[in-house]
From TrEMBL:
Name of the protein described by the UniProt record: Transcriptional regulator
Gene source species: Kitasatospora albolonga
HTH cro/C1-type domain: residues covered: 18-70
Chain segments annotated as transmembrane: none
Domain of life: Bacteria
Cited Gene3D superfamilies: lambda repressor-like DNA-binding domains
Length: 274
């Protein structure tokens, strides 16, 4: 291996093999996408190792390429520690050069403190074991390590003011969580904007949204609800999602004023003023 070569992940090997088999079969990405019943952009993500196909898509890929179950069987060896509806998003985060996230009611996972995350996991699991909660917190903490680097990804965070006001885990946990966000914003690790209550209705009021951009591939958008998630790569849907984000950003406080609002909310939590 040359000194400037980087080790390939298992997903990258999977994607490279898919590209080689597709080329050998004389198919373009568009032609394969037509047989798999997906977008060419999605095939591009598969081949770049940024996403893994679903079992059904892997089965259709095998059928289109005549690979006798090869890609479906290999897929079983690439199990993820994330929920099925979020696994692809977690993979894409690692490759993104720009992440623009909007949170409606909760602090985004990439920014959560351990105590805040633990309180969330307890809230929706009436019968939980401490070991399970601890493991989930570790997974979330490991995911956030992509922010350890000083440059990539560039992170924009847009928060509805409701995120600041809902007391998750108690006053001290909430104060610590908000101060972490403000500290990161002041350190230049994220661009922070708050959509204040006084802004009224806004373009993202119905859902959280994450936009991700890449150095060598088309952008994607992700929205999430209870037990569901929708990762979109259709250019028209991504464009409309980006427009909605821009509209909401236009109604938000400035970066500096947002940091002030977040720190003020932290003080209010700590002193029991909410």
């Amino acid at each position: 291996m040359r000194s400037n070569d980087k080790p390939r992940t298992a997903r990258q090997k999977y994607g490279e093999e898919l590209r080689l088999r597709r080329t050998a079969a004389g198919l373009t990405q568009e032609a394969l996408a037509e047989q798999v019943v997906c977008s060419p952009t999605l095939i591009s993500h598969y081949e770049a190792g940024r996403r893994l196909p679903s079992p059904d898509d892997a089965r259709r890929i095998d059928r289109a390429l005549g690979t006798d179950g090869f890609f479906e069987r290999w897929l079983q060896d690439l199990e993820t520690k994330y929920d099925e509806n979020f696994a692809a998003v977690a993979e894409l985060e690692q490759q993104a050069v720009l992440i623009q996230q909007f949170a409606l009611t909760l602090v985004p996972g990439l920014l959560q403190t351990d105590d805040y995350a633990r309180a969330l996991f307890r809230a929706y699991r009436p019968n939980h074991r401490r070991e399970e909660i601890d493991q989930d917190v570790v997974i979330r903490t490991e995911r956030a390590r992509l922010l350890d680097g000083p440059l990539n990804p560039v992170l924009w965070t847009l928060l509805d003011e409701a995120v600041l006001r809902r007391r998750v885990g108690g006053p001290q946990v909430m104060a610590k969580q908000l101060r972490k966000i403000a500290d990161m914003a002041e350190a230049g690790r994220l661009r922070l904007h708050v959509l204040p209550f006084e802004a009224g209705a806004h373009s993202l009021q119905q859902s959280l949204l994450t936009l991700m951009s890449f150095a060598d591939s088309a952008p994607v958008a992700y929205v999430e609800g209870f037990q569901t998630g929708n990762l979109m790569d259709d250019p028209s849907l991504v464009a409309s999602s980006s427009t909605a984000y821009d509209l909401a950003l236009g109604d938000a406080l400035s970066h500096q004023d947002s940091v002030v609002r977040v720190r003020a909310a932290a003080e209010e939590h700590e002193h029991g003023q909410q």
